[in-house]
Design brief:
Elements lengths: L2 H7 L3 H10 L20 H4 L16 E3 L3 E5 L3 E5 L2 E3 H9 L1
Antiparallel strand pairs: 1-4, 2-3
Length: about 100
């Protein structure tokens, strides 16, 4: 996580702590090629509450972090989103 990310999340420390606790080192790199564009995902998928592949509700500890992703919005500028996947989809995407 970069310093600007930490500064943006500093206003809500519990979220920052939760992200630090669940972000695996191998998932910190962007995986854009395996993800749908954020504008076709639901808000819950962009926030990491539902799987970005199958839209299954993700329970605590049962998801794989896919790293913070950034998208350029013509109005909002650079926007961060936090995709996660269920373990089944993550395994299938890894095999693809």
């Amino acid at each position: 996580m970069t310093d600007p990310d930490r500064e943006a999340l500093a206003v809500y420390p519990p979220l920052l702590d939760a992200m630090d606790a669940t972000l695996a080192p191998h998932c910190s790199e962007p995986v854009r090629g395996l993800l749908a564009q954020p504008h076709v995902l639901t808000e819950m998928q962009r926030y990491g509450l539902r799987c970005v592949h199958c839209d299954t509700e993700l329970k605590p500890g049962a998801a794989v972090e896919l790293g913070t992703q950034y998208d350029e919005d013509p109005i909002l500028g650079r926007v961060a989103w936090f995709p996660r996947a269920c373990r089944d989809c993550h395994t299938r995407q890894g095999a693809a």
